[in-house]
Amino acid sequence: MTRAAQRQLGHTALHLALLGGLAAVLMPMAFALSTSLKPYGDLFVYPPVWVPIPPKWDNCVEALTFVPFHLYFFNTSLITGLDITGKLLSCSLVAFAFARLRWWGRDTLFIVMVATLMLPPQVTLIPQFVIWKELGWIDTFVPLILPNFFGGPFMTFLLRQFFMSIPRELDDAARIDGCSSFGIFWRIILPLSRPALMAVTVFVFNTTWNEFLAPLIYLHSKTNFTIALGLRAFQSEHGPEWHLVMAAALVVMLPILVVFFFGQRYFIQGIVFTGVKG
Q: What is the widest separation between alpha-carbon atoms in the chain?
Protein backbone atom coordinates (compact mmCIF):
# COMPACT_ATOMS: atom_id res chain seq x y z
CA MET A 1 0.00 0.00 0.00
CA THR A 2 1.15 3.52 -0.74
CA ARG A 3 1.70 6.02 2.04
CA ALA A 4 -1.42 7.97 1.02
CA ALA A 5 -3.54 4.79 1.12
CA GLN A 6 -2.20 3.90 4.56
CA ARG A 7 -2.97 7.39 5.80
CA GLN A 8 -6.50 7.18 4.38
CA LEU A 9 -7.03 3.76 5.97
CA GLY A 10 -5.85 5.09 9.33
CA HIS A 11 -8.23 8.05 9.12
CA THR A 12 -11.12 5.73 8.22
CA ALA A 13 -10.37 3.41 11.16
CA LEU A 14 -10.11 6.41 13.50
CA HIS A 15 -13.45 7.81 12.36
CA LEU A 16 -15.12 4.41 12.72
CA ALA A 17 -13.76 4.11 16.26
CA LEU A 18 -15.02 7.60 17.08
CA LEU A 19 -18.44 6.80 15.64
CA GLY A 20 -18.56 3.64 17.74
CA GLY A 21 -17.70 5.60 20.88
CA LEU A 22 -20.31 8.23 20.00
CA ALA A 23 -22.96 5.53 19.57
CA ALA A 24 -22.06 4.03 22.96
CA VAL A 25 -22.34 7.45 24.62
CA LEU A 26 -25.65 8.33 22.96
CA MET A 27 -27.25 4.93 23.54
CA PRO A 28 -28.54 5.70 27.08
CA MET A 29 -30.01 9.00 25.90
CA ALA A 30 -31.68 7.30 22.95
CA PHE A 31 -33.13 4.69 25.29
CA ALA A 32 -34.44 7.38 27.64
CA LEU A 33 -36.00 9.32 24.75
CA SER A 34 -37.61 6.17 23.35
CA THR A 35 -38.96 5.15 26.76
CA SER A 36 -40.37 8.62 27.43
CA LEU A 37 -42.53 8.41 24.29
CA LYS A 38 -44.01 4.97 24.98
CA PRO A 39 -47.30 4.08 26.64
CA TYR A 40 -47.06 2.05 29.83
CA GLY A 41 -48.02 -1.19 28.07
CA ASP A 42 -44.99 -1.03 25.73
CA LEU A 43 -42.31 -0.59 28.42
CA PHE A 44 -41.48 -4.26 28.87
CA VAL A 45 -42.19 -5.55 25.38
CA TYR A 46 -39.50 -7.88 23.97
CA PRO A 47 -37.88 -7.22 21.60
CA PRO A 48 -37.99 -3.57 22.63
CA VAL A 49 -39.59 -1.02 20.34
CA TRP A 50 -37.13 1.84 19.75
CA VAL A 51 -39.50 4.05 17.75
CA PRO A 52 -42.96 3.99 19.36
CA ILE A 53 -45.84 4.46 16.92
CA PRO A 54 -47.60 6.69 17.65
CA PRO A 55 -45.34 8.55 20.12
CA LYS A 56 -47.04 9.54 23.36
CA TRP A 57 -45.98 13.21 23.62
CA ASP A 58 -48.21 13.96 26.59
CA ASN A 59 -45.98 11.87 28.88
CA CYS A 60 -43.91 14.98 29.59
CA VAL A 61 -46.95 17.03 30.56
CA GLU A 62 -48.29 14.19 32.70
CA ALA A 63 -44.94 13.72 34.46
CA LEU A 64 -44.47 17.41 35.24
CA THR A 65 -47.95 17.77 36.75
CA PHE A 66 -47.65 14.97 39.31
CA VAL A 67 -45.29 17.02 41.48
CA PRO A 68 -44.70 20.82 41.46
CA PHE A 69 -41.78 20.76 39.03
CA HIS A 70 -42.35 24.44 38.25
CA LEU A 71 -41.45 25.25 41.87
CA TYR A 72 -38.41 22.97 41.75
CA PHE A 73 -37.28 24.62 38.51
CA PHE A 74 -37.59 28.05 40.11
CA ASN A 75 -35.62 27.02 43.20
CA THR A 76 -32.88 25.42 41.14
CA SER A 77 -32.69 28.36 38.74
CA LEU A 78 -32.38 30.80 41.65
CA ILE A 79 -29.63 28.80 43.33
CA THR A 80 -27.80 28.21 40.05
CA GLY A 81 -27.92 31.86 39.00
CA LEU A 82 -26.58 33.08 42.35
CA ASP A 83 -23.92 30.38 42.43
CA ILE A 84 -22.67 31.37 38.97
CA THR A 85 -22.59 35.03 39.99
CA GLY A 86 -20.72 34.25 43.20
CA LYS A 87 -18.18 32.01 41.51
CA LEU A 88 -17.46 34.44 38.70
CA LEU A 89 -16.96 37.38 41.05
CA SER A 90 -14.97 35.68 43.80
CA CYS A 91 -12.86 33.29 41.73
CA SER A 92 -11.94 35.92 39.15
CA LEU A 93 -10.80 38.34 41.86
CA VAL A 94 -8.70 35.70 43.62
CA ALA A 95 -7.27 34.47 40.31
CA PHE A 96 -6.35 38.03 39.36
CA ALA A 97 -4.45 38.44 42.64
CA PHE A 98 -2.55 35.18 42.06
CA ALA A 99 -1.81 35.85 38.38
CA ARG A 100 -1.20 39.60 38.02
CA LEU A 101 -0.23 41.01 41.42
CA ARG A 102 3.11 40.55 43.21
CA TRP A 103 2.93 40.04 46.97
CA TRP A 104 4.82 38.10 49.60
CA GLY A 105 3.80 34.44 49.94
CA ARG A 106 1.70 34.42 46.79
CA ASP A 107 3.07 31.20 45.29
CA THR A 108 3.05 29.37 48.63
CA LEU A 109 -0.54 30.30 49.30
CA PHE A 110 -1.48 29.27 45.77
CA ILE A 111 0.05 25.81 46.33
CA VAL A 112 -1.88 25.50 49.60
CA MET A 113 -5.10 26.43 47.80
CA VAL A 114 -4.52 23.90 45.02
CA ALA A 115 -3.66 21.24 47.62
CA THR A 116 -7.18 21.55 49.03
CA LEU A 117 -8.42 19.90 45.82
CA MET A 118 -7.15 16.62 47.27
CA LEU A 119 -9.48 16.98 50.26
CA PRO A 120 -12.74 15.06 49.63
CA PRO A 121 -15.85 17.19 50.25
CA GLN A 122 -17.31 14.42 52.40
CA VAL A 123 -14.60 15.10 54.99
CA THR A 124 -15.89 18.62 55.67
CA LEU A 125 -19.57 17.75 55.29
CA ILE A 126 -20.34 17.21 58.98
CA PRO A 127 -18.41 20.28 60.28
CA GLN A 128 -20.12 22.47 57.69
CA PHE A 129 -23.53 21.07 58.62
CA VAL A 130 -22.88 21.84 62.29
CA ILE A 131 -21.87 25.43 61.44
CA TRP A 132 -24.98 26.04 59.33
CA LYS A 133 -27.18 24.46 61.98
CA GLU A 134 -25.75 26.71 64.71
CA LEU A 135 -26.39 29.71 62.48
CA GLY A 136 -30.00 28.61 62.00
CA TRP A 137 -29.75 28.35 58.21
CA ILE A 138 -30.78 24.71 57.76
CA ASP A 139 -33.68 24.27 55.32
CA THR A 140 -32.75 27.51 53.56
CA PHE A 141 -30.85 28.24 50.37
CA VAL A 142 -28.03 30.03 52.20
CA PRO A 143 -25.74 26.97 52.67
CA LEU A 144 -26.03 26.27 48.95
CA ILE A 145 -25.35 29.85 47.80
CA LEU A 146 -23.13 31.68 50.30
CA PRO A 147 -19.98 29.46 49.99
CA ASN A 148 -19.81 30.26 46.27
CA PHE A 149 -19.12 33.93 47.06
CA PHE A 150 -15.84 32.94 48.73
CA GLY A 151 -14.07 31.40 45.76
CA GLY A 152 -13.14 27.82 44.96
CA PRO A 153 -9.79 26.16 44.22
CA PHE A 154 -10.57 24.57 40.85
CA MET A 155 -12.27 27.57 39.25
CA THR A 156 -9.62 29.90 40.67
CA PHE A 157 -6.89 27.71 39.21
CA LEU A 158 -8.67 27.66 35.84
CA LEU A 159 -8.99 31.44 35.68
CA ARG A 160 -5.50 32.05 37.03
CA GLN A 161 -3.98 29.99 34.22
CA PHE A 162 -5.91 31.98 31.65
CA PHE A 163 -5.02 35.35 33.22
CA MET A 164 -1.33 34.44 33.10
CA SER A 165 -1.55 34.00 29.32
CA ILE A 166 -2.58 37.66 28.87
CA PRO A 167 0.48 39.87 28.15
CA ARG A 168 1.64 41.91 31.13
CA GLU A 169 2.43 44.82 28.85
CA LEU A 170 -1.28 45.63 28.95
CA ASP A 171 -1.07 46.07 32.74
CA ASP A 172 1.98 48.33 32.44
CA ALA A 173 0.32 50.49 29.79
CA ALA A 174 -2.80 50.82 31.91
CA ARG A 175 -0.81 51.80 35.01
CA ILE A 176 1.02 54.47 33.04
CA ASP A 177 -2.39 55.90 32.17
CA GLY A 178 -3.27 55.96 35.87
CA CYS A 179 -5.43 52.84 36.07
CA SER A 180 -5.67 51.11 39.45
CA SER A 181 -5.33 47.35 40.02
CA PHE A 182 -9.10 46.95 40.17
CA GLY A 183 -9.43 49.04 37.01
CA ILE A 184 -7.01 46.73 35.20
CA PHE A 185 -9.02 43.76 36.42
CA TRP A 186 -12.39 45.23 35.41
CA ARG A 187 -11.49 47.02 32.17
CA ILE A 188 -8.75 44.83 30.69
CA ILE A 189 -8.57 41.35 32.17
CA LEU A 190 -12.28 40.49 32.33
CA PRO A 191 -13.14 41.63 28.76
CA LEU A 192 -10.25 39.52 27.43
CA SER A 193 -11.27 36.48 29.49
CA ARG A 194 -14.68 35.68 28.06
CA PRO A 195 -13.75 32.10 27.02
CA ALA A 196 -12.49 31.26 30.51
CA LEU A 197 -15.47 32.93 32.18
CA MET A 198 -17.83 30.98 29.91
CA ALA A 199 -16.03 27.76 30.82
CA VAL A 200 -16.52 28.56 34.51
CA THR A 201 -20.18 29.35 33.86
CA VAL A 202 -20.77 26.00 32.15
CA PHE A 203 -18.92 24.11 34.88
CA VAL A 204 -20.83 25.79 37.71
CA PHE A 205 -24.17 25.49 35.94
CA ASN A 206 -23.69 21.80 35.30
CA THR A 207 -22.52 21.12 38.87
CA THR A 208 -25.21 23.15 40.61
CA TRP A 209 -28.09 22.05 38.40
CA ASN A 210 -27.27 18.36 38.99
CA GLU A 211 -26.24 18.72 42.65
CA PHE A 212 -27.99 16.15 44.81
CA LEU A 213 -26.02 15.60 48.03
CA ALA A 214 -25.90 19.18 49.35
CA PRO A 215 -29.64 19.90 48.82
CA LEU A 216 -30.42 16.52 50.37
CA ILE A 217 -28.45 17.45 53.48
CA TYR A 218 -29.64 21.04 53.93
CA LEU A 219 -33.17 21.15 52.49
CA HIS A 220 -36.04 19.43 54.29
CA SER A 221 -39.22 21.19 53.16
CA LYS A 222 -40.68 20.06 49.84
CA THR A 223 -41.30 23.67 48.89
CA ASN A 224 -37.52 24.23 48.99
CA PHE A 225 -36.59 21.16 46.94
CA THR A 226 -34.31 21.53 43.94
CA ILE A 227 -34.90 19.76 40.66
CA ALA A 228 -32.63 16.84 41.65
CA LEU A 229 -34.57 16.22 44.87
CA GLY A 230 -37.88 16.67 43.06
CA LEU A 231 -36.88 14.12 40.44
CA ARG A 232 -35.86 11.65 43.15
CA ALA A 233 -39.15 12.18 44.98
CA PHE A 234 -41.03 11.67 41.72
CA GLN A 235 -39.10 8.46 41.06
CA SER A 236 -39.87 7.10 44.53
CA GLU A 237 -43.59 7.75 44.03
CA HIS A 238 -43.81 6.54 40.41
CA GLY A 239 -40.98 4.02 40.19
CA PRO A 240 -42.71 1.41 37.97
CA GLU A 241 -43.91 4.10 35.55
CA TRP A 242 -40.56 4.41 33.79
CA HIS A 243 -42.02 6.26 30.83
CA LEU A 244 -42.97 9.17 33.10
CA VAL A 245 -39.65 9.04 34.97
CA MET A 246 -37.70 9.18 31.70
CA ALA A 247 -39.86 12.03 30.42
CA ALA A 248 -39.21 14.06 33.59
CA ALA A 249 -35.48 13.26 33.44
CA LEU A 250 -35.22 14.49 29.84
CA VAL A 251 -36.97 17.74 30.71
CA VAL A 252 -34.57 18.23 33.63
CA MET A 253 -31.59 17.55 31.36
CA LEU A 254 -32.75 19.95 28.64
CA PRO A 255 -31.39 23.21 30.20
CA ILE A 256 -27.90 21.69 30.48
CA LEU A 257 -27.92 20.75 26.80
CA VAL A 258 -29.12 24.22 25.82
CA VAL A 259 -26.44 25.99 27.89
CA PHE A 260 -23.66 23.81 26.52
CA PHE A 261 -24.95 24.14 22.94
CA PHE A 262 -24.83 27.94 23.03
CA GLY A 263 -21.63 28.16 25.08
CA GLN A 264 -19.59 25.29 23.65
CA ARG A 265 -17.34 27.51 21.52
CA TYR A 266 -16.28 29.67 24.46
CA PHE A 267 -16.18 26.63 26.73
CA ILE A 268 -13.72 24.74 24.51
CA GLN A 269 -11.60 27.87 23.99
CA GLY A 270 -11.44 28.44 27.75
CA ILE A 271 -10.30 24.88 28.42
CA VAL A 272 -7.63 25.02 25.68
CA PHE A 273 -6.27 28.47 26.49
CA THR A 274 -5.93 27.81 30.24
CA GLY A 275 -3.08 25.43 29.48
CA VAL A 276 -1.08 27.83 27.32
CA LYS A 277 1.04 29.19 30.13
CA GLY A 278 1.75 27.69 33.56
A: 75
For residue 76, give the nearest of 253, 258, 200, 266 by alpha carbon: 253
Residue type, 116: T
Q: ∠175-181-185 over CA atoms, to 5°?
A: 105
Which pTM does this prediction carry? 0.83
For each of the domains in the chain, give its residue range(s) and CATH number, in order of start.
68-236+260-273 (1.10.3720.10)
State the SS3 of 108-177: HHHHHHHHHHHCCCCCCHHHHHHHHHHCCCCCCCHHHHHHHHHCCHHHHHHHHHHHHCCCCHHHHHHHHC
pLDDT at position 276 is 47
In the prediction, which pLDDT does 270 show?
56
pLDDT at position 278, please? 43
What is the structure's pLDDT at 52?
Answer: 77
CA 245 from centroid of its chain's CA atoms: 22
What distance in Å separates the CA atoms of residue 163 and residue 92, rounded to the nearest whole number? Answer: 9
Residues of the chain with pLDDT under 70: 1, 238-239, 266-278
Rounded Cα distance between 188 and 193, Å, is 9
Cβ–Cβ under 8 Å, residues 165 and 95? no
